[in-house]
Amino acid sequence: MISFIVPIYNAEHYLPSCIESLRAQTEQDLQIILVDDGSTDGSYAVAQSFANQDSRIMLLQQTHAGQSAARNLGLSHAQGEFLAFVDADDTIEPDWCERHLAAIEGVDYVQSGYKRIFYGDSESAKGKTPLHQYIYTSPCMRLYKRLAIAGKSFVERMIYEDVVWSVDLWLSGATCRIINYTGYHYTANPHSTTSRPHPEAQRRVISELKSRLHNASLRGKMIIYYTIIRLKLHFIRS
User: Residue 40 and residue 124: Cα distance in Å, rounded?
Assistant: First the structure.
């Protein structure tokens, strides 16, 4: 079984497409965990309607505590041998599970690419995507063996928490296979948390990463510094 964890906060307009893309997978042995993070729109009602239709869907609700807390709650209820994260405003291709399952033998997780969606338009790399473009810090676009990420929780009450989580994954020595496949559709949402500058949150994530330098190996230090440089460039551009 693959357990999908979908954190939801005020995503009622995107959520039906997201859930339908999960239900439409060619691999049907799924657990779909929807975690409503105290939405103030109609997200919970949308999620409830799908849960009533499909026994594979588990709907959880919490007081608004952020995406990290929602993902951690989802992780605590996951039953599948494999895990994947999908954001509520994103979708995946029908063969996403199938393609990742075919490649996960012998490694801890499989990494693939994504298409960026701008209100119906999409852009994606043509031909073979350079491998360095797959080194990003979102926990999405990956299929994990559950045992490989056991005990790896997200830092709560923090923006850019996925950066710290991914770096901790890399520092743990988890093995990865990269496949040249772009089956994840990432929605460029102008209302998302990270679409606006957050100077204090930016300083905190850099501090969190630097705190890991002391116990890191030489390779680990290189990973941390590389991530910090990319983050700072991203902050400058945004």
Answer: 33
